[in-house]
Write a structure and sequence with these properties.
The chain is mainly α and 130 residues long. Helices cover 88% and strands 0% of the residues. It is globular, with a radius of gyration of 18 Å.
Length: 130
């Protein structure tokens, strides 16, 4: 019973990762913290769920080896962004850099999530129509 409940809850969070963001914003709002000040924290906690969601949706649409490509793209983005950050800033702070990269991943994965959902929906409609 507990395992089933946890797997359903985890499945819902994977399918719709923005539930985490909404829950965090609601909790902090009840505590009296302004939502604008904790939006970054909510994005930080949503990013791992976005990684999983994008992986699962992309694997469903395109098949195997998608995880490898997602990992390679994430590493390349991190390397390129670190080079640009090092050229731009005098003092390279690792913690600040990782926070920027993590939030960049949030933005990229959010757009990828929406695009992949649209592509998957269109492909399924075309599959059923033919």
């Amino acid at each position: 019973m507990t395992t089933t409940l946890l797997s359903v809850l985890f499945g819902i969070l994977i399918f719709c990762p923005y539930i985490v963001t909404i829950l965090i914003l609601m909790i902090y709002r009840r505590l009296g913290t302004a939502p604008a000040s904790i939006l970054g924290q909510a994005a930080d906690l949503t990013t791992p769920f976005l990684f999983l969601s994008v992986y699962i949706i992309a694997r469903t649409i395109y098949g195997d080896l998608v995880g490898f490509y997602i990992s390679i793209i994430a590493i390349i983005i991190t390397i390129i962004y670190s080079i640009l950050e090092k050229m731009k800033v005098k003092e390279f702070l690792i913690k600040r850099f990782l926070r920027k990269v993590w939030r960049l991943f949030f933005l990229l994965l959010s757009s990828s999530y929406v695009i992949l959902l649209i592509i998957g929906l269109v492909l399924k409609i075309m599959q059923y129509a033919l």
